[in-house]
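Notebook p. 47: complex prediction with magnesium ion.
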Amino acid sequence: MLLVQKYGGTSVGSLERIRAVARRVSEAARSGAKVAVVVSAMSGETDRLLRLAMEISERPDEREMDLLLSSGERVSAALTALALRQMGVTARSFTGRQCGIITDGAHTRARIETISAGRLMRALDRGEVAVIAGFQGISSSGDGDVTTLGRGGSDLTAVALAAALKADLCEIYTDVEGVYTADPGIVPEARKLDRISYEEMLELASLGAKVLQTRSVEFAKKYGVPLVVRSSFNDMPGTYITKEDEEMEKVLVSGVTCDKNQSKLTLLGAPDKPGIASRLFSEIAGAGLVVDMIVQNISADGKSADISFTVPRTDSRRAVEITGRLARDLGARGVDVKEEISKVSIVGVGMRTHSGVASKMFDALASHNINILMISTSEIKVSCVIDSKYAELAVRVLHEAFGLEKAA
Ligand code: ADP
Ligand code: ASP
Ligand code: MG
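Predicted complex, structure tokens below:
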């Protein structure tokens, strides 16, 4: 039995919590399993390091940021290995480089290219517990600089190592008992799911449910990594993320989520002729920005168009620069940006085979006077952009409208 266990920030948030993690790991090791443990930085540490850098420089160099941010996970890895050794378990800590995680050179959001897990495997074969600093690797190009895998990236470290080591199970230990029908911090009535499909989990994660990092779910789906999300505070069974089956299709909506980190931009009064959207979005994509929703409206006289789209809030300044430049080139009226927006979404594989889900969502929002600014749909989700001040209300309203609360 080979297990990868990942412990998030709250789970290693203090020495007491680190000792509790070490106890859980030692139980698994003593039961005969080979255990690779991936740890996050202690809770709040990554944000603290980010703030320090921002105090020195408004736009800190990304290579330096990666070295800085990767240190948080190293501290937790060394402390966890020490706690295990104190309990008589032979444990050894590893950085991203030491466990062979090679990435591209995109600092602060690097993608894993390969993993050479030989050294890790040998440690596990010797009966050692391997404790790995999550969230980091080294770049394949140039000098092998330290890279990080994007916020929440320790989840990806765990899933990718589970795939490379052909683990029997990847356990993500966190501060909630699993994946819920909505963030339990927003909806106290949210229900823990026993199982959810990779597809639904991928939508929920990318639409704002931070319980798993989006890329880690993509990776798990691609390589079929058996994944469970559990609490590090108790022994409840958690939520299994699995392939879709017929039972799952009977459920119309599995979850509701919201993303408050988006901005909406509008290119106003652009000439209505071929090639405008193509130019706008190729320039935005060329700058490495990811666009989500797009809506175009043609004026009543058919002469000009307004094109609205959303980007992650952190990219909105760059997007405004690019769109502004294009507006001047085209003689368009200008650019409007709205930062106080949120995207609320409902997700469920059952939507494929049922109609009327979207209209039920719009009805529920309308009955609480929540205005919809943009809409997008896919086979298994419906998303609406709304004013940020209604984000939590909207999640609660939709959770109730689709009857997702705990069974009485
Ligand atoms: P960790 O530090 O362990 O990686 P995170 O803070 O990244 O933990 O993720 C866990 C948090 O995700 C929970 O505390 C919860 O508030 C939030 N969350 C958002 N949506 C959901 C959901 N649908 N189910 C469970 N938790 C969710
Ligand atoms: N410490 C990193 C973060 O806060 C990575 C992680 O916790 O998964 O984003
Ligand atoms: Mg996380």
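Notes: The chain has a mean pLDDT of 95. The two ends are 38 Å apart (CA to CA).
Next step: compare against the earlier run before touching the bench.
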